[in-house]
Amino acid sequence: MVNIRKLESDLWESADLLRAGSKLTSNQYCMPVLGLIFLRYAYSRFKLVEREILKNRPVRGGRVMPVEASDFLSKSALYLPREAQYEYLVNLPADIASAGLTNQSGHTMNSLGEVVNNAMELVEAQSEQLVGVLPKDYTIFSDELLAELLRIFNNNALDEVGGDVIGRIYEYFLNKFAKNIAQDDGVFFTPKSLVKMIVGVLEPRGGVLLDPACGSGGMFVQTGDFVNAAGMEANAAMTFYGQEKVEYNAQLCLMNMAVHGLNGLIKSGDEANTFYHDAHNLDGCCDYVMANPPFNVDKVNSESAQSAGRLPFGLPSVNKAKEVSNANYLWISYFYSYLNEKGRAGFVMASSATDSSGKDKDIRQRLVESGHVDVMVSVGNNFFYTKSLPCSLWFFDKGKPEELRDKVLFIDARNYYTVVDRTLNEWSEWQLKNLNAIVWLYRGETEKYRLLLEEYRAVLGNVPFVQRAEELSEGIKALRDEAKQAVAEAPKREKKKAQADYDGRLAALEETLTTAKEAVWLYEKFGDGEYRDVLGLCKTASLADIEERGYSLTPGAYVGVAPAEDDGVDFAQRMGEIHRELLELQRESNELMGTISRNWEEMGL
Q1: Integer Rg of the chain from CA
Q2: Is residue 569's pLDDT more than 60?
Q3: pTM (2 decimals)?
Q4: 28, 119, 261, 277: which could form a disulfide with 84 (CB 3.0–4.6 Å)?
Q5: Which residues are CB-contacts of 434 (< 8 A; sequence separation ≥ 6)?
Q6: How far is CA 72 from CA 126, 161, 261, 361, 438, in A?
């Protein structure tokens, strides 16, 4: 698995050294650099799709038919003409003027900057929504500097990172370039695992999707992947609409969608300020709404917000300055209002919103009473890339079946995650499937659950999951012992190779053990496929239960606390051992202090 944080750091360090050595400001440097990242990632996806197309390519006259732009369109990917392909740009000669290259207009190009500008124009010609979006000011760079930037971003690790990689690296770079832009008004990049969870619960199949705070477009990208994986063509099945106040983010969104072959209508700037504008006139028209809006925004003009509509439950609290001092429930109201009579919404929200008081509580009560609140999920700390705050995922469903109209599923996933590093957590692919499985069972979709068990068995074999986990644990322990002995006995020049071989085998076993543990986690709770409330994890609450708890939508208020696992240690005995260890450390400390004092005296100090 690629360590994306190290990749980001390495890319930034290299690029920033160049910036520091040039006369360019951060603002001048920012978008051109992001444009190169876009071009490199577009090339990575181009080569991947090209290989798929060539697998079954017809042959005529002994020659394989060349690929065309239409082939890529059907595969939801961006076609790149040869002169816009990253490999072509990286391998250009140092002396561009002597190469006799001409641009689209037939003019001779004399610098690498002109060649890259031409590449961007060629890409824009492949996608109507990209026209005027890509940076085309590469002549501000010297040929030497630009060639070095192209080399830096020609990193094979970018080929291995799926999903919204542009958004992820974009945020990292933008945060470095201009911190005030990256975190303006609480805006921050949506982690991929949260986006996947939202898409997995909503299960988009076709229709209108709106993200009224679309940022870098991660919701669109993941939806496209989900729809394509279901055997449909995303652009034919879905219509994508976005609003994004920050122009940079909107440009990135369009670039990101284009790389993934998606078409959408994205509006930006003042007309895309969702508090004051329904930019696409979609109130009551959406099949799906997905968003990660900025949290806890203040100073929203209440009169302008009210006149902009989409507030079926009224305004939140307004202060003396006629401002909404916390806009969380404006967003929540918008997401509900945008849905059509069968629509579903999934969004990220500050944890505090699940039980905030005042007018927020009144709005929340009316939401609950509508019967359209579907699922609530608590997410732990450190999921966000630049923030450590916890959050909640909210899900609405106006088309809930009658048997679920009186119910809400609460999931407390604060203690369920995979540690990526000291400051970042995520849900692994298996953990995402497990969380989705709880929702399936709540909805009575047992066949999906059964198929997930089959997925686990395909990896682990047709044996009880607990047994397989125990076998793997023993196997890893035995292999570690074998590795230690084998490396110790290997000739000096063979030791590194022997260690690397064993490390690879151990890593594969440990990955399978992790999968086995997730299978055990799921099967011990839900067996062959029957939903049940699990203390500390999930609870299906009735509307009467929610009313009884003052209309709180905090999962922890319903699921309770899981019993602490017995680690087999006698508490009194262990405390006695700790006390004795402490006394021994104090004795050693006193002896050491005495020795130091005597040494000082001997030196006459």
Answers
A1: 28
A2: no
A3: 0.83
A4: 119
A5: 518, 521, 522
A6: 11, 20, 8, 49, 37
At residue 42, does pLDDT exceed 90?
no
The token pair that represents 110 in the structure block: 């004399």
At 52, list the tokens.
Answer: 């798929």
Q: Are 251 and 306 in contact (CB under 8 A)?
A: no
H or E element that contains 209: strand 207-211
470 burial class (0-12, 13-18, 19+ CB within 10 angstroms)? Answer: middle
Which is more confidently placed, 335 or 575?
Answer: 335
DSSP 562: P
Angle of CA points 386, 387, 390, to nearest 5°:
145
Q: Rounded CA gap, 7 and 306, in Å?
A: 45
CB 286 within 8 A of CB 343: yes
DSSP state of 534: B
| SS3 readout for 91-125 | CCCCCHHHHCCECCCCCECCCHHHHHHHHHHHHHC
**Is the distance from CB of 398 to CB of 341 less than 8 angstroms?**
yes
Instruction: Give yes or no for a contact between 415 and 435, defined as CB atoms under 8 angstroms apart.
Output: no
User: Rounded CA gap, 98 and 93, in Å?
Assistant: 9
Which two tokens mark 188?
Answer: 């921050």
User: At 428, which helix (H) or strand (E)?
Assistant: none
| Residue 165 confidence (pLDDT) | 63
Residue 581: pLDDT band with limits 50, 70, 90 = low
> What type of residue sits at position 397?
D
The percentage of the chain sitting over the pLDDT mark of 90, rounded to a whole number, equals: 64
Per-residue pLDDT of 52-95, as tens digits, reads 888 888 888 778 788 888 888 777 778 999 999 999 999 999 99
Per-residue confidence at 359, pLDDT binned at 50, 70, 90? very high
Contact 377, 392 (CB under 8 A): yes
Residue 501: the pLDDT is: 93
Rounded to whole angstroms, the Cα distance separating 19 from 26 reads 8
